[in-house]
Amino acid sequence: WNVIPGTRHHQLLHSNEAPLESELADIETASSDMDAHLALLDDEIARLKARVEQLEEERLAIGTRRQRNHAILSPLRRIPPEVLAEVFLWSLPPSYVDYERGRYDVKESPWVLTHVCSRWRAIALSTSSLWSCIVIAYSPENDSSSAYPLPLVKAHIQRSRQLAVTFHSCETSDWEPQVEVFQCLAQHCGRWVELDMLVTSQLLPLLSGLRGQIPCLRKLYLEWDDSESHPGMQSIDCFETACSLVDLSIMPRHIPINILLPVHQLNRYAMTAPWGAHQSFLTLASNLVEAWIVVDDQRWPEPSPITLPFLRRLSVSEPEVLDYITVPTLEEIALYVDGNDLDFQRRLASLLHRSSCPMQRLCLHGRPTACGTLAILQAASCIVELV
Asked: Which residues form a coiled coil (predicted)?
């Protein structure tokens, strides 16, 4: 089908001339011949494509078999179970991720580890520390029954040995699933080592059943949903008999009910409250090593310093707090400064003089000024580290 230059056909191909009547048959014959050849080429291309597809499928199948065969040599198969269990522990998400998500996720560790292979599942199920933390948070945005379904809560508890429980209930969400799940957790409260709880009115009466049943509880964080979360109850006494409790945080907007606690055995304390509540607490907490004191009421009685003989780390939100304590072993202090640098400077100097403590580290939060910071450092010349 190569047209020879100089011929009539070549001339027609390279111009807009109309062919003569006598030339039509030859042109149509040439087109028919080319159509036939194109059909042959299409058939050959289709055959070759089919062959390529067949070869690609065969290559994929062999590649998959090779990959599976090569996996037999994987070092993962030779990792001892105890090492793999340690790797699993590092895959656990922080508890705040679970809390912010507001519901459990089967695609997250530890649940996802039970769906990889039989060996991983066996190791995950037998590693109780993988299941030692359970986070359940209810919110108005999520269905209460889906926050952490009860059957999965039971499975989680069954696989654990000790439990660090985060349970944030919600006053405006369906309370029945919340009560059911908390009752399930409470049946195993003897294994609780930590409890982080946001209390609501429906759950508060259930706390009385914990009295004398939480011998392993070492760390307690309490918060209230609102001021209505105390239906007729005068006090919470279930934590009074927690013989292992040493770490306490109470961070409500208000404390709606009296809480009986083994104050004398605590070594860490963090609370937001009026100074009067702090004062009553600190008077009995002679074994404290660390204290975070946030004062939300500016009423200050006549100073009568409380001696905390073992306190090494202290954080305060108001400079007036420093007038009410004596801390002979204090090593670190954190101050929330907001335009009251000089007030802190004066009171800190008095505290250090009164306590004769070996303080070496100072942390300044808030909005300290340059001259205020300098004044504080001059008052605390023993400081070797400023944060």
From this structure: 38-65
